[in-house]
Amino acid sequence: MSASSLPQASSYAPAVDHLFDAMLLLCGAVAIGVFAVMFAFCIRYRRGHAADREGGNTRLGVELAWTLVPFALFLGIFGWSIGLWAKLRTPPADSVPVYIVAKQWMWRVQHPDGTREIDTLHVPLGQPVRLVMISQDVVHSFYVPAFRVKQDVLPGRYTELWFTATRAGRFPLFCSEYCGVGHPSMRGSVVAMAPADYARWLHAQSSPGLAARGAELFRRFGCSGCHDPGSGVHAPDLRGLYGAPVPLSDGSVVRADDRYLHDSIVLPRSQVAAGYAPIMPSYQGRIGEEDILALIAYVKSLEVEGGQGHAHP
Amino acid sequence: MRIPESTGSYARDNYLSQGRPGLRGWLLTHDHKRVAILYALAITGFFALGAVAAALVRLTLVQPDSQWISPETYDKSFTFHGIVMVWFFLIPSIPNTLGNFLLPLMIGARDVAFPRLNLFSWYLFMLGGLFTIATLLLGGVDTGWTFYTPFSTMFSNTHVIMAAAGVFVSGFASIVSGMNFIVTVHTMRAPGMRWFRLPLFVWAIYATSVVMMLATPVLAMTLLLIALERLAGVGIFDPALGGDPVLFQHFFWFYSHPAVYIMVLPAMGVTSELICCGVRRRVFGYRFMAWSMLGIAFIGFLVWGHHMFVAGQSMYASIAFSLLSFAVAVPSAIKVFNWLATMYKGVIDFHAPMLYALGFVGLFTLGGLTGLFLAAVALDVSLTDTYFVVAHFHYIMVGGAVMAYLGGIHFWWPKITGRLYSEPLARFAAILMFVGFNVTFFPQYVLGYLGMPRRYHDYPPPFQALNVVSSAGAAILAVAYLLPLWYLGRSLWRGASAGPNPWHATGLEWTTPSPPPHDNFPEPPVVERGPYDYRDP
Amino acid sequence: MSTPQPLAHAPQFDDPTQQRTAAVLGMWAFLVTEVLFFGVLFAGYAVCRWRFPDAFAAGSRHTDLPMGAIETGVLLASSCAAALALRDVQLGGRRAATRLLVLTAALGATFLVMHGFEYTDEYREGLVPGLRYTQDGPLAGKMEFFFYLYFAITGLHSVHVLVGVVLMLVMALRNARGRFRATYFTPVELAALYWHLVDIVWIFVFPLVYLVGRAG
Ligand code: HEA
Ligand code: HEA
Ligand code: CUA
Ligand SMILES: [Cu+2]
After folding, report:
1. Does the pLDDT value for residue C135 go beyond 80?
2. What ipTM score was computed for the predicted complex, to two decimals?
3. Which CATH class is domain A210-301?
4. Contact C52 A272 (CB under 8 A)
5. Does domain C16-211 have CATH number 1.20.120.80?
6. How far apart are CA B18 and CA B436, in angstroms?
C-alpha cells in the first residue's frame, strides 16, 4: 500500500518500505488487538450485564509472556532495521562523490568535473552516488523522500550519504532540519537521468573541472605564493599529500583526508605540520565552503612526480 | 450504568475556608492543596497561550503558501507553542496539580515534607513563566523548542537568552518539586502504608520525581551554556572555532528524552487509578506496574541518542541507542497489557474519567507503537523531522497525557471542590475530544510518511488536503477543550455536593470529607490493606 | 521567634525524628542534583579535552598552580572546620562551634578573594573569552575553549562558595544565640553537608584545571 503513494526511486527504498510495511502489519495488528480487546471487555463486562466474573487474578506466567514476547519481537525489528542501516552507512567502493554545500537557504552542488548547480542535483541512474556534505552556517538536513534517505549537514564537519537512483524523474529535495526563516524555502529537486542523458547533460554544462577551478583559486587566494615548490617561504609541498600520513608538531601523526585538508585551510593552527612555523593565515570566513572543496580537489589532484612520496622534512 | 452520586454533604470546614482568608492567604499558603490550585490556575493559563499558538500554526497550514502571518511569526509560533506546552503546561500538569493535591492525601500525611519549598516552587514557576511571556512581548524567539546550536547561539536574532532564562528558572521549580515529593514519599507515609501498598499514582509521581531531579539540572546547565555562548560570542558549541554543535544535542536530549517520561509517567499513574475504579477491580499485576514505571524512568536515561540518528553520531552509537529504545518500550507494553487485563472480569462503568482513561490507553498505544517505527533506525532515517514525528509525540502527549490529566481532573474534581459536575456533558466532551484528536493528528502520520518536513509554513501543494483535515480536527479539538472549562466552572456554583466518596472508590483520599480539611484527615489514618481493595464482585 | 522548644517540629511532621530524616534526605537529594549541574560542565570538559589535548594542556599551563594549591588547602581546612563545628554542636558545645563556623566562613571568603586575584591576573593576561582574549599562537583558538570552561566551572563553583559563606555566617549567628543543642542540630548538619559538596567539587576542579597540563 505504501509503495503506491510515494515513489520508490532508489535501490534502498524498496528495502525500507518492506520494513515499514512489516511494521505497519505488526503494529497495526497489535493496535487493532488492543482496541478489540478493550471494546470486547467493555461490552462483556459492562455494569448490569451478566457475565462470569470469578477469578482472573494476577498470574506470573501471563505477565512474563507479555513481557518476553514483545521483547523478542522488538529484537527482531531491531535486527532487521540495523541490517538496512549498516547498508546505508557503507557506500559501495565504486560510488562517485558529489559535493554539497548547504547554507541559509540553498543547496550548492559541485560535481567532480567542476559542474555546479544550485538547489538541483543531477544524478545518473544505476550509479551509486556518494554525497560529501558540509554546511557553511547552521545545521541543515538533506532529505529526499523518494529515496528514503536523509542526513544532517553540519558546519565544520563533513557528513556523507549515498544512494543509487533507480527511477528516472525529478524528485523533491527538502531541508529537514530547522535552519531559520528560510527553512521551508530550502527546497530543490534531485533529477535522476539515464546514464546517456546524464552524460549529455554534463557535457552541455562545459565547465572546467573542479580541480582546475581549484588551481585557479589556489593562485587567486595566494596559496601558491607559499606552497609552490619554487617559493621562498618555508611551507610544505602539497604534492602527493592526500592520503599520506602527516607528522604534526605535537608529535602525533594524522592521515591527510578531506577533513584534514579542510581544517588545514580554515583552522591551520589546529594541526601544524611538523617542522614548519605556524605562519599560514586562517582562511576562516574568507573562503566559502565551495571554494574550499575546489581547493581540496586541486590538492588531491597534485600527483607525485618521480615516484617520490609526500616528503616532510 | 452508575454515575457518581452524592455521598454526603459539602464539608464546610475545608482547606478553602480554613486558613488565612483572602488573596494573601492564597499567595502565602503552605497548604499543598492550595499550592495545587495555584498551579492548576497557572497551567490552565499557559495551556490557553500554547493553544492560541497552535491555532496560529494550524490556520497557517490550511494553505500551502499562506501569507496570513509572516514566516517569522510562524517560526515564533511553533517555538512558543513547543516551549509553553512542554515546560509550562505538560511537565507541571499532573505532578504539580494532582500530584501536589493528592500525594499527601494518598499516603495519609498532613502535608508534603517541605510546604514552604512547595510554595517556592510555584513562585519559581511563575517567574519562569513571566520570562517566557516577556520573551513573547519583546518579539518572541524562533529557535524551535530544541534550541539547536549554532542556530540558537550564533545566528538567531531573537530573544534566545530570555527564553532560555524562562525555561531555566522553571526548571528549578521542577527540581524543587521533585525533591519534595521524593522526601515526602520516603518519610511521611502513614502507619501501615508500606511501599507495596502505595497507590500506583504515588509510584508514578515518585518515579517522575526521580527523573525530574536527575535530568533537569542537565537542561539548566545546557541552557546556561547557550546564554554564555551568546554573551561571550564563543564557546564549545561553536563550530567556527572547531567546537561541536552536536555536543549540544547530546546534552539537550539527555534531558529531553527523560523529560518525555516526566510527561507520561504521571499520566500512567492517573490512568491506573481511573481504570481500577472504573472497572471496580484490583489492578492486574500491581508489582509489575510499579516496577515497570521505575524501569521506564531508569532506562529512559539511556536512549537520548535516538533523536540523533542522522545528526552525525557514529553508526555504532545509533545501533546502541536503537536497541535501548526498544528496551524502554517493553515496560510500556507491560502497562498496556495490564490495564487491559484489569478490565477482564470487571464491572465496568463508563463515566467520564473512565472514558478518558480508555482514550489514554488507546492513543498512548498508537503513539507508542509509532515510536517503535522511529526507534528502528532505518525507518527513522526517512521519518525523522517529518510530520510523522509530530504525530507520534502529539499522540502520546496530547492524546495520552492531556487526556489522562483531564480524566484525573474529572475524577478528583469532587474531592478537590466538593461538587459534582454534569456527567452527560463530560462524557460528550471526552468522546468529542477523542474524535477531534484523531482527525487532527492521524493525517499527520500520513503526511510524514509522504515526506512533509516539520517546521514548514510553506509546503508543496499536494500536501494540502491532509493539512486541511488536520486543521479542521483542531477546531473540533478546540471545542472539546473549551467544554470542560464551562461545565466544570459551572459546577462550582451549581454542582450538587459530592460527599466524601462519590465514586465509591478505595484510597485514603476518599476517606476524608470533600473538600478535605486543612490538615487533610480528621483522624490520622492507619492503613491495613493494599490499594484497590474493591469488594464489588 | 523565641528559643524553640528542644523537641519542637513543624506541623506536617509527627515528631522531630521524622522531621530530621526528611531534612537530611532532602539535602542529599539536593546534593545529587548539584552533582549533575557540575556534571554537565565536566562532561563538556572531558569531550573537549579529549578532542584537543594539547590546547587544554597549554591552557592549563596558564593557570596559577601555587595559587590553586593554596586554595585547595584553604578549602580542605574549611571543610575540616565545618566538620569540627558540627561535632561540637552535637556534643552540646557552643562557643567553640561558633568560632569554628566563623572560621569556615572566613576560609571560604579567603578562597574567594584568592580566586578573585587569579581572575584579575587572567584578565590582564587576556585570557577571558568574550571579554578580553588576546592569546595568539597555534593553540589559541582551542585554548579559548579551555578558558571558557574554566570560567564556567570555577565561576559556578565560586557562586556556591559564596552561598556557603553566607550560610555558615547565618549558622554561626544562630548558634551564638543558642538555637542549637545536642538534640537539635539539623541546620548545622545540612550546612556542613553542603559545604563538603562544595569542597568535593573543587577536589575535581583542581586536577582538571591546574594539574592536567603539567604532568609531562
Ligand atoms: C510523553 C512523551 C513521549 C513518550 C512517552 C515517547 C515514547 C517513545 N518515543 Fe518518542 N518523542 C516524543 C515524546 C514521547 N515519546 C517527542 C516530544 C519527540 C520529538 C521531539 C522533537 O524532535 O521535537 C519524540 C521523538 C522520538 C524519536 C525521535 C524521532 C526523530 O526525531 O527522528 C524516537 C526514536 O526512536 C522516539 C521513540 C519513542 C519510543 C520507542 C517510545 C516508547 O517509550 C513507546 C513505548 C510504547 C509502546 C511501544 C506502546 C505500547 C506497547 C504495546 C501495546 C506492546 C506491544 C507491541 C508490539 C509487540 C509491537 N520518539
Ligand atoms: C506538550 C504538549 C503539546 C500540546 C498539548 C500540543 C497541542 C497541539 N499541537 Fe503541538 N507541539 C508540541 C507540543 C504540544 N502540542 C511540541 C513540543 C511541538 C514542537 C515544536 C517545535 O517544533 O519546536 C509541537 C508542534 C506542533 C505542530 C508542528 C508545527 C511545525 O512543525 O511547523 C503542530 C501542527 O499542527 C501542532 C499542533 C498542535 C495542536 C493542533 C494542538 C492541540 O491539541 C491544541 C488544542 C488547541 C487548539 C486547537 C487551539 C485553540 C483553538 C482556537 C483558539 C480556535 C481556532 C482554531 C482553529 C480554527 C484551528 N503542534
Ligand atoms: Cu536548511 Cu532547514
Ligand atoms: Cu526520545
Report:
1. no
2. 0.90
3. mainly alpha
4. no
5. yes
6. 41
